[in-house]
């Protein structure tokens, strides 16, 4: 069976080489990647894949990964038992990796080479000074306080509907092709294991699936869901996905979504401004209820966390991101502060220009 499978084995290798060559072209010319893949082929792939994967309530990506690991384990045993030759095993492994490489990039991964945030959205970069950063922190503290409401439970279907409506409304400004498929949120099959690694959700590129961990608290759900949906729209950067999620949630009609997003983003601003003494006084203005929510979230995840699994997952994710042109690796998540500052800088400038006219 193995020989039959690899009768055309070199075809897979050549497809991988061709895919790698395309990735180098896209890396050198982001505008080409944006026009022909991110705004061209990808929305079609996303629509087709998500249409078929939506027929299943469970995660096809999880099954795919499980089968890969199971097959690899079985083959290793067969090699040890000398039922399969080492050469055949090596050929199978190389071709399997090559096939995954090809599928990953054509089905989603080429989005890593699209134009960057500021070019794509036409938002000028700003270089905020200390006072501007502290002012932004103060504004976000006020917005978080104002959007607060107790969240002990959440209607997930309603949250999904609200976020979808907001993405549709802001699609033009966010430069995404709507609808680009069906973003039916699915549970992570191995949610407990992912929770030990502090993973609240993930996007499955092979079947275009959005996943949210069942262990996510109701207060976190809207922001996590919106973040994973951003990935489905072809947004690969974690920082950009955070920005997209924050924007669609805070600009939605739902108070729970607004609070969830503000609560999530605020912690990045607090971290960024923590080197300034004045930040402490600003943070003191947080409502006690907001502080309690932060404590509840931290206690929840720390109780689930397994240090070794978390550290291993962090290293794997960091290496994966850096291999795909995300220079900061897992630190990319905190880059959302820059994007929010750039966005609000543009909004303020447009407001000033309008008032002058």
How does this model look, in words?
It is a single chain. By secondary structure, the chain is mainly alpha-helical. It has 2 domains: 2-113, no CATH class; 117-356, no CATH class. It is 69% helix and 3% strand. It contains 16 helices and 3 strands. A 3-stranded mixed β-sheet has the order 1-3-2. Strand 2 and strand 3 form a beta hairpin. It is globular.
Describe the SSE topology.
Elements: H1 2-5, H2 9-28, H3 30-53, H4 60-80, H5 86-107, H6 117-121, H7 130-147, H8 156-174, E1 185-187, H9 191-196, E2 201-204, E3 209-212, H10 221-232, H11 238-250, H12 255-273, H13 277-283, H14 288-304, H15 307-323, H16 336-356
Helix pairs in contact: 2-3, 2-5, 7-12, 7-13, 8-10, 10-11, 11-12, 11-16
Number of strands: 3
Please give the alpha-carbon distance between the first and last residues.
74 Å
Largest sheet: 3 strands, mixed
| Bulk shape | globular
Helix/strand/pairing category = mainly alpha
Number of helices: 16
How many domains is the backbone divided into? 2
In short:
The chain has 357 residues and is mostly helical. The chain has 16 helices and three strands. The chain has two domains: 2-113, no CATH class; 117-356, no CATH class.
């Amino acid at each position: 069976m193995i020989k039959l499978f690899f009768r055309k084995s070199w075809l897979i290798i050549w497809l991988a080489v061709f895919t790698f060559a395309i990735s180098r072209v896209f890396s050198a010319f982001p505008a080409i990647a944006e026009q022909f893949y991110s705004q061209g082929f990808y929305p079609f792939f996303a629509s087709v894949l998500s249409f078929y994967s939506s027929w299943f309530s469970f995660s096809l990506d999880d099954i795919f990964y499980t089968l890969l690991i199971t097959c690899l384990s079985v083959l290793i045993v067969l090699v040890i038992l000398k039922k399969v030759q080492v050469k055949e095993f090596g050929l199978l492994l190389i071709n399997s990796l090559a096939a995954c490489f090809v599928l990953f990039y054509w089905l989603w991964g080429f989005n890593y080479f699209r134009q960057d945030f500021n070019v794509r959205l036409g938002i000028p970069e700003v270089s905020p000074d200390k006072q501007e950063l502290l002012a932004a922190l103060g504004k976000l503290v006020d917005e978080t306080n104002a959007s607060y409401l107790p969240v002990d439970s959440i209607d997930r279907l309603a949250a999904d509907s609200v976020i979808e409506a907001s993405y549709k409304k802001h699609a033009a400004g966010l430069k995404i092709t709507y609808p680009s498929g069906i973003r039916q949120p699915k549970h992570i099959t191995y949610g407990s294991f992912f929770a030990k690694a502090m993973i609240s959700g993930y996007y499955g590129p092979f079947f275009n699936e959005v996943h949210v961990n069942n262990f996510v608290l109701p207060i976190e759900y809207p922001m996590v869901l919106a973040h994973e949906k951003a990935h489905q729209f072809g947004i690969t950067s974690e920082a950009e996905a955070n920005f997209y999620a924050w924007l669609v949630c805070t600009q939605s009609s739902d108070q729970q979504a607004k609070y969830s997003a503000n609560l999530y983003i605020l912690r990045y601003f607090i971290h960024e401004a923590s080197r300034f003494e004045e930040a402490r006084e600003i943070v003191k203005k947080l409502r006690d209820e907001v502080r309690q929510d932060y404590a509840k979230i931290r206690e929840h995840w720390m109780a689930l966390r397994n240090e070794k699994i978390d550290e291993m997952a962090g290293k794997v994710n960091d290496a994966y991101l850096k291999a795909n042109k995300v220079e900061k690796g897992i630190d990319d998540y905190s880059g959302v502060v820059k994007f929010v500052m750039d966005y609000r800088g543009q909004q303020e400038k447009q407001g000033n220009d309008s008032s002058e006219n």
